[in-house]
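sorry to bug you again but im stuck and you know this stuff better than me. what follows is a protein written twice so to speak, once as letters and once as structure tokens for the fold. mainly i need to know what kind of three dimensional shape the backbone takes. anything you notice is useful, everything is just below:
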Amino acid sequence: MSKAGFIKVKSTSTAAAAVIGGEAPPQADTNAREGWTFVKTAAHDPADLKINWYYWNGTYANIKLKHMKSLFILGSIDTWTNNVQETFFINVYTKMTGSGDAGSWFHSKHSYLINTNNQTITAGERCIFHALDVPKLTFDGARPVLLGIRQDEGAYNDESEILVISVHTDSSAPSVGVLVENMGVDFHQHEYHTNERTVNLKVVI
């Protein structure tokens, strides 16, 4: 695998706490696959359990929405009961401006979801779930699956600065099983560098 932009985080490390946040911690996969697994069954409170794994933090950067080239998750969707479109998705939050902020800590939120009208998912299939372009990393031939629907909370403005990027599952889904191996983003070249840049976070138990 290419080491472009490579970062590795172990689930029990201090660094992992910043990725996991206050939501559900990762688990080891029962099928011995690499990565972090999240499993939720009907026995859990559907309002309480989800993942919200932050894999890029732009608090001290000035990178804008227009600089995003590709957002991606390498992994699998094993089980779902609600529409798979809303089971596993990427959120991009922008920094508060003090004018027209949509949330208490962010200016706008942009969610990228699977378009099930033109994408079919096989349970357990290893895929590159991506928004915008296909990422330049190929991950040993994993199948690209486009997150082709964008839902906006607040206005989408290319000039808005990115606060954080995260991977989510739907808290209202009564049963979900997902595996995440890598999370990442490709950025277009901009004022901070002359070449395109990749951030590729690999997560391990």
